[in-house]
Write a structure and sequence with these properties.
The protein has 334 residues and is α/β, with parallel strands linked by helices. The chain has two domains: 212 residues, P-loop containing nucleotide triphosphate hydrolases (Rossmann fold, 3-Layer(aba) Sandwich), CATH 3.40.50.300; 73 residues, no CATH class. 34% of the residues lie in helices and 23% in strands. A six-stranded mixed sheet has the order 6-7-8-3-9-10, with helices on both faces. The longest helix has 18 residues. The relative contact order is 0.14. The chain binds adenosine-5'-triphosphate, iron/sulfur cluster (SF4) and magnesium ion. The site of magnesium ion has 3 residues, from helix 1.
Length: 334
């Protein structure tokens, strides 16, 4: 995926935390690319490393050891001085967090906060920055933006606050937007509005977007490419149509099986994936999904031994690799 339109290219990204109980490899050898105007969906259960990945791209990990390559618009970000990274955050890349209240300051008005953000990055005067803040609020569909710019974060509803976050993220016109579970706390109607808003702005500005979610329904709506994570690693990558029509990895299939179907008559109970995610402190020697993998139910001893002792590499056809010793391609078990 190294076309001229590739804005972000991440290779062999590894993030390790030193903890009192030992070292935690939260992200292990991850690679992906995002093109301008397109959305990469990153999906996986809680604890699979989605947020750690996005913070690593933004260069926001302090107490962690980060290795690998993060190329943004042809420029290597790993190893850059904090000052340089700070300049790029906002102008080149921005992030929307799951909980807007944690990233908006309660004491300042939203207008002041967006204006300050703009001033820091563009050195604009106070008046121009304030005008840009009102413009940014209008762009994300906040009614009466001039008046609302004088309100504080708690005076907004959850959905409107998320719009304020988007306004702040986009006020400096970044090329890359990372949205970490931007709609999880919202009800379905508001969720749809926020996703539509991001899609509209993406089209207008040819934004590259990374949409992080545990909801495959959201991925199906917005993503062009999908990366499925499990235990800090990529287990499958594909374009969205291929991933939904022909998932190759048993974990992806299990995720898809747990989705409610449109043609469901409502009688079928939802199937959750049984078992829990792997420990990152003492990862299993073989495939991290083995204890939960339906392929191993009643499997021959030889197959089980291979899965439990040999870690599968991310491999397979170009554009659709899977980390599994026995992936399913075109409906056929290899
Ligand atoms: N500062 C830290 N120190 C130690 N471990 C950490 C730290 N930050 C994250 N982790 C661990 O890294 C793993 C991945 O965390 P991460 O927040 O990326 O998960 P996630 O996929 O975003 O999950 P969720 O869907 O719940 O947001 C978790 O096991 C978490 O405990
Ligand atoms: S490698 Fe084995 S245990 Fe792991 S997902 Fe594939 S079949 Fe299942
Ligand atoms: Mg997270």
């Amino acid at each position: 995926m190294n076309t001229p339109d590739t804005l972000l290219r991440v290779q062999d990204l590894t993030v390790t935390f030193a903890t009192p109980r030992g070292s935690v490899r939260a992200v292990d050898g991850l690679g992906f690319a995002v093109r301008r105007g397109e959305t990469l969906g990153i999906v996986g259960e809680s604890g699979s490393g989605k947020s750690v990945t996005s913070l690593a791209v933004m260069g926001l990990h302090t107490g962690a050891s980060v290795s690998g390559s993060v190329m943004l618009d042809g420029r290597e970000l790993t190893g850059l001085a904090e000052r340089e990274l700070n300049r790029l955050r906002g102008r080149k890349m921005a992030m929307i967090f799951q909980d807007p209240l944690s990233s908006l300051h309660p004491y300042y008005t939203v207008g002041e906060q967006i204006a300050e953000h703009h001033r820091v990055h563009y050195g604009s005067g106070r008046r121009a920055a304030r005008a840009r803040a009102v413009e940014a609020l209008a762009e994300v569909g906040i009614p009466e933006p001039r008046r609302r710019a004088r309100d504080h974060p708690h005076q907004f509803s959850g959905g409107m606050r998320q719009r304020v976050m988007i306004a702040m993220a986009l006020a400096c016109e970044p090329d890359l937007l990372i949205a970490d579970e931007p709609t999880t706390a919202l009800d379905v109607t508001v969720q749809a509005q926020i996703l539509e808003l991001i899609a509209r702005i993406q089209e207008e500005r040819q934004l590259a977007v990374i949409m992080i979610t545990h909801d495959l329904g959201v991925v199906a709506r917005v993503a062009h490419e999908v990366l499925v994570m499990y235990g800090g690693r990529a287990v499958e990558q594909a374009d969205v149509d291929t991933l939904f029509a022909a998932p190759a990895h048993p974990y992806t299939r299990a995720l898809l099986d747990s989705l409610p179907r449109l043609d469901d008559d409502g009688d079928e109970p939802l199937r959750a994936i049984t078992g829990s995610p792997p420990s990152l402190l003492t990862p299993p020697p073989g495939c991290a999904f083995a204890p939960r993998c339906s392929q191993l139910t009643g499997a021959a001893a030889e197959k089980r031994t291979r899965c439990e002792s040999e870690r599968p590499a991310l491999d397979g056809p170009a554009g659709h690799p899977a980390a599994c010793h026995f992936p399913t391609y075109e409906g056929v078990n290899s």
